[in-house]
Structures are given as structure tokens and as C-alpha cells.
Amino acid sequence: MYKTILVPFDGSALSGRAVPVAVALARRCGARLILALVHDPSAYIPFVPGEVAIPVYDAELVSEHRKQDQAALDAALAELATQGISATGVLLEGTIVEALVEYAQSAGVDLTVMTSHGRRGFARLRLGSVATAYLTRATTPVYLVRGSGSDATPELPVGTLLCTLDGSPFAEAILPHARAFAEAAGLTMALFSVAVPHATPMAPFGAEALLADDSAMVLEEAGRREYLTRIASECPPGTTVHPVTDMSAARAIIDEATRTAAGALAMATHGRGGLKRMVLGSVIDEVIRHTHTPVLVYRPS
């Protein structure tokens, strides 16, 4: 069970969507709840134009913004107090992701609950994502609540926690965290694996058409089912298994979450960032950008 839950907060309604989820989890686990707001002067310090742009430190401006950030944090804590919810607030200094990661490690945070915009395409490249950057550095699980979509206040997930595995020890690193989250949220675990079919090129040089190897597909899916069944024996009672075959792992995961109305997804991530992420791609990145289902993510060390 969780002992300390962190909620990155910036005073906006968007970041506030994560608070009710964290509150519900904290109540079920008896965990300490921490709201963290990062005061980052680099976000608004003006630059003097010239041959080389030079940042101008304005102590009065920095002080005013710090007061505004503290006021937003105090208001959020006061609102929780009116609901009988005890929480701690901390105002951090520095760049957002670095300050959050450092604090999470020093405070012994077990779980971070935060909101993801779920941006796609050019907007994602241009604006970046605090959630994505945090995932590449966090050393403990992160539960992402989707910020876009329904305006309804998010609640604890219900039903199943869809845990995706691919047969590798890396992917299996999510299992202890999935079990802990399922217990804390009252979910049933469902193990899911995607078998990508082997294909034989029909054209002389390969690119024009592909013929799926049906016999290999049958064997692969049977192997996945046997693997999931073995893993399920080490999971809580009632854990189900479901292997599928699909050319796209991300699409299959999203479709399965929709088909089963899963309460949440659980996945391990390599935590790639920058150019390496763009070149190699990421199944979990694709899932996060396209699903409306909350996602529990863990980056193995």
C-alpha cells in the first residue's frame, strides 16, 4: 500500500483534475497526500533583445509570482480542508520537472498522480509535456489522469486494471506496482499481450505485399496465453488473461481498453526522451496520446 502520494499542481483546473483521484487513493491507503507547486522564474523572466538575448532578473517580479504561486497552493489546501481532507503543500523552486523529480526522491514518494494533456503531433513537439518529461525521470510509478475529454470530475477507476505484457522481464517490472495499485483502488487485474504476426513478403523485393504466416500466428498466440496464465497464477485471485494478434501493439491495447471498459492501464516504459524517442518510437507514448483511459506507468531503473 502507498504511504506518500504526490500531486504536481500549478493552480489550474487542469492540474486539479488529479487531486480527487489522489485524495481517494490516500483515503483508502491511509497515505500522506502532498500537493507540490513549482515556482519557476525562468518561465516569465524577460529577455533583453540584441545580438545575444540576455535574461533580466527582476527581483520584484519574481517575488510577486512567488506570492501568487503560494496563494494558489494555500487556496487548494484550504479547499481540501473544508472537505475534511488533510494534505501538505510544498512550494518548490527551479525548473518544473527537475524540481518535482528531486523532491519526489527526497520525500520518499511512492506514487505520483498527475494530469496529462494527451497532445498530439505538432502541438506536442512545440509545447512539450511536463507529464512525458517527468515519466522519463521518475523512479516510482506515475498515475496519469487524462486532462482532455470529459469535464466530469475524475474518480477512482472501477472494474479492471489492464496490465500489458510482452514476455520480457522489462515489461514484467510493472507487475508489483500493478498489484499494489489494483489493491489500493479495488480493481481486478487483467493481463493482456499482443502477438504481432510474422509476415512473408510476396513480392521479389518485399515491399509490395505481405502474406501472414497463419501457423506461426496460432503458435505465437497460444504461447502468449500460456505465458499470461503462468503470470496470472502469481497475481491476485480473479486475474484474467487475454492474448490477441495485431500488427500494431498500441492500437490493440487501446482497442482492448475500450472493448473491456477498463478502469485503467498499467505499463512499463523505457523512458526514452528527445531524438532517441522520436527515432525509436514508443508504444506507451502512442497509447498515452490516444487513449482516454488513465494509465499507471513505471520506468524500471
A few lines on this structure:
This protein is α/β, with parallel strands linked by helices and 301 residues long. The protein has helices at residues 13-16, 18-29, 59-82, 96-106, 121-127, 130-135, 169-172, 175-185, 214-232, 249-259, 274-280, 283-290, and strands at residues 4-8, 32-39, 47-48, 54-55, 88-93, 111-116, 142-146, 160-164, 188-195, 199-201, 210-212, 240-245, 264-268, 295-298.
Which radius of gyration do the C-alpha atoms yield?
Answer: 22 Å
Largest sheet: 10 strands, mixed
CATH topology assignment of the largest domain: Rossmann fold
Q: What is the rounded distance between the termini?
A: 21 Å
Strand order of the largest sheet: 5-2-1-6-7-14-13-8-9-12
CATH-defined superfamily of the largest domain: HUPs
Count of the domains: 2
User: Average pLDDT value?
Assistant: 83
Q: What letter string, H or E per element, gives the SSE order?
A: EHHEEEHEHEHHEEHHEEEHEHEHHE
Any low-confidence stretches, pLDDT <50, length ≥5? 119-128, 275-281
Instruction: Please indicate the percent range of residues in DSSP E strands (runs of 2 or more).
Output: 15-25%
Helix content percent band: 40-55%
Count of individual helical segments: 12
Question: Structural class, from helix and strand content?
Answer: alpha/beta
Query: Any idea of the CATH class of the largest domain?
Result: Alpha Beta
* CATH architectural category of the largest domain: 3-Layer(aba) Sandwich
What is the multimeric organization of the chains shown? single chain
> What is the general shape?
elongated
Query: How many beta-strand elements?
Result: 14
